[in-house]
Design brief:
The structure holds two protein chains of two kinds.
Chain A lengths: L1 H28 L5 H6 L8 H13 L4 H33 L5 H13 L6 H10 L7 H7 L3 H14 L2 H9 L4 H12 L1 H17 L2 H6 L8 H10 L9 H7 L3 H33 L4
Chain B lengths: L8 H4 L2 H15 L5 H4 L3 H19 L11 H8 L3 H30 L4 H12 L6 H11 L8 H7 L5 H4 L5 H26 L3 H9 L4 H12 L1 H15 L4 H9 L10 H10 L4 H26 L7
Helix pairs in contact in B: 4-17, 5-17, 6-11, 6-14, 7-11, 8-15, 14-17, 16-17
Classes of the chains: A mainly alpha, B mainly alpha.
Chain lengths: ~290, ~325
């Protein structure tokens, strides 16, 4: 009975593990095969590294190296926005945690509500607003909306409220530190774990965002990679038979599309792996502390 | 994803004492303290949080020449023949997704809780991996998975979806389920981690007491653990409901990959997008955006006021 229960448990867990992992494995292996081999060979078989470099050659040649431009754009958008997020959200969380100014409660509540609201609900309103100000179609129209990240403010706020004793700050003040020095010398160094957490969530959210840049950027040379992928999809004949002839010309087939998808995920995968431990601890240990 | 019930001397203090403390602090140190630290963030909150909502609302109740239109934009978008199907699609999709989330996330978290630590953390990591592939990347991966000629699960595509060709896989009747599966695939791992974390906060002696009373592992899971993580489940459901209604990238990419077989107004957000971009009817786009905003706002307020998971008092 016990053994049977244990076995059933493992079968369920393993089945879901297959569901979550096999598509990722397929994606990693697909660029090693030709489009023909993808159909004829086993779906999880390995082809050759030669095919990978061939697929990259085709992908890189697409539209005059535009793939590199998309990755560069994504890096620019995600890093600049996240830098602004860190510079604004950490102090804001600190100010909201220990401040006593009028309007504090209102700012906190608004931050909380906008944070919980799905980001996609604000995309069209932001587009309409920027459009009326004639501010669309440039890098800032992506970076500045990305730089508003209320979840980061909330993370910093909850961190300061729960993990940093008020007495410590009072002691710094008693030692003659002004408001700024107290933050700079005491509160900021203590915020290291939350800085990592905010960086992670902000960077991943920006990198993966499709809808906002799709709405505010018209010129394909300014696309971030997520929007670029949709461009590539339209050029792949197996998903878009109208591209039949065009597919031959631009040489974008399933292996190239798979490689493009795989490379687009790498920066986020790196950030995931780097912060895996901190993240699981942060989500569970710090933030869900009870 | 943070909790209200946080260990902090301020959190434990009764409300009255907390208030008095605030008053004393205020009196002692002047009332403007902390504001300079918040100032750099404020323009972002206003420009990209509050102002867009107000502007969308203004557009929604005016005509293109700026005259007052009352509810006309709302009624004419509702009367549009694409409005009903778009909302039907997103509610159906959201329903399927929520069902899958509640059943599988909770089951998997309960199964993992009580596993040996190493086994459990390996599984949690494995379930979390697809989270790295969000946005367009996850949709592309699943377009491959649904292409019977290359999919590692082609027997499933054949037998479950009855599809021999890619276009048959993405037949309109399948889409709510396919989109729900993609969303589940990318997001479930994160929720499993959250639920697992919530389960870890249940005191050991409580479980011990139940065991001494003769409760088996299933009894403990269903009668002790499940009720104790109820508010986290509620949070997941409300938040996912609001997110689900905003669906955009999945149907947009499937539209591109289906040669127009799937309409470009499949979801409500797509419909709003088309009103703005194809017809330059910003007032209609704003009206639909306000409908969707209302759903999001309602869910957010519900979470803040009812689940008690987020607090703004200290």
């Amino acid at each position: 009975m016990r053994i049977a229960g244990l076995g059933l448990r493992l079968v369920v867990l393993a089945t879901f593990a297959v569901f979550f992992v096999v598509p990722v494995l397929w994606l990693i292996l697909a660029p090693t095969k030709s489009d023909h081999a993808l159909v004829t060979d086993g779906p999880l078989s390995f082809g050759s590294f030669h095919q990978v470099s061939l697929a990259w050659k085709h992908l890189d040649a697409f539209s005059d190296h535009i793939y590199r431009t998309w990755i560069t754009n994504s890096l620019l958008y995600a890093f600049s926005a996240t830098a602004i997020v860190l510079a604004t959200a950490i102090p804001a969380g600190y100010g909201l945690a220990f401040g006593t100014f009028p309007g504090r409660k209102v700012i906190l509540t608004l931050t909380l509500v906008v944070m919980i609201m799905p980001a996609a609900a604000l995309v069209l309103p932001i587009f309409l607003e920027l459009n009326s100000l004639h501010l669309i179609g440039n890098a800032l129209s992506v970076i500045l909306p990305f730089a508003f990240f209320p979840f980061g403010v909330y993370l910093a706020y909850i961190y300061y409220v729960t993990a940093v004793p008020r007495d410590l700050l009072d002691a710094a003040r008693a030692d003659g530190c002004g408001e700024w020095l107290t933050f700079r010398r005491v509160a900021l160094p203590l915020a290291k774990p939350v800085v990592a957490l905010v960086f992670f969530f902000s960077f991943v959210a920006d990198w993966n965002n499709f809808f906002l840049p799709y709405a505010v950027i018209a010129d394909s040379s300014q696309y971030p990679i997520q929007v670029g992928l949709s461009d590539l999809l339209s050029s792949t004949p197996s998903f878009n038979p109208a591209q039949g002839g065009g597919g031959q010309q631009v040489n974008i087939f399933r292996p190239e599309l798979a490689l493009a998808t795989l490379l687009a995920v790498i920066p986020v995968a790196i950030v995931f792996l780097l912060s895996q431990r901190a993240l699981v601890r942060g989500l569970v240990g710090g933030a869900v502390k009870e | 994803m943070s909790s209200s019930a946080v260990t902090s001397p301020y959190a434990q203090a009764p409300r009255k004492r907390g208030l008095r403390a605030v008053v004393e602090r205020t009196r002692g140190l002047g009332s403007g303290r902390g504001l300079p630290f918040v100032l750099p963030y404020l323009p972002f909150l206003i420009l990209f949080g509050i102002a867009p909502m107000i502007y969308a609302l203004k557009l929604a109740v005016t005509k293109d020449n700026g005259d007052w239109a009352g509810l006309h934009n709302f009624t004419r978008t509702v009367d549009d023949y694409r409005f009903g199907p778009a909302f039907k699609h997103i509610f159906l999709y959201t329903g399927v997704w929520l069902g899958a989330l509640v059943i599988f996330v909770v089951t998997l978290a309960l199964l993992l809780h009580g596993r040996a630590n190493r086994v459990s953390s390996t599984f949690r990591f494995v379930f979390y991996i697809p989270g790295a592939l969000a946005g367009a990347a996850s949709v592309l991966v699943w377009l491959f998975m649904l292409d019977p000629s290359v999919s590692p699960g082609s027997f499933l595509v054949h037998n479950v979806l009855g599809a021999g060709l890619f276009v048959e896989s993405i037949a309109p009747g399948h889409l709510p389920f396919i989109f729900a599966m993609i969303a589940f695939w990318t997001g479930a791992g994160g929720w499993i981690v959250v639920m697992y974390g919530a389960l870890n906060t249940i005191p050991q002696d409580l479980e011990e007491a139940a065991r001494i009373d003769g409760a088996g592992p299933i009894g403990i899971a269903l009668r002790l653990k499940l009720p104790l993580i109820r508010k986290w489940i509620a949070y997941m459901v409300i938040l996912s409901f609001a997110t689900g209604t905003q669906l955009f990238v999945e149907p947009q990419l499937v539209n591109q990959a289906s040669l127009g077989l799937v309409p470009d107004t499949w979801s409500a957000n797509q419909l709003a997008y088309q009103e703005a971009f194809r017809y330059a009817d910003f007032n209609a786009a704003a009206a639909i955006a306000v409908d969707l905003l209302a759903i999001g706002l309602f869910a957010a307020v519900l979470i803040v006021s009812r689940t008690g998971l987020f607090r703004t008092e200290d």
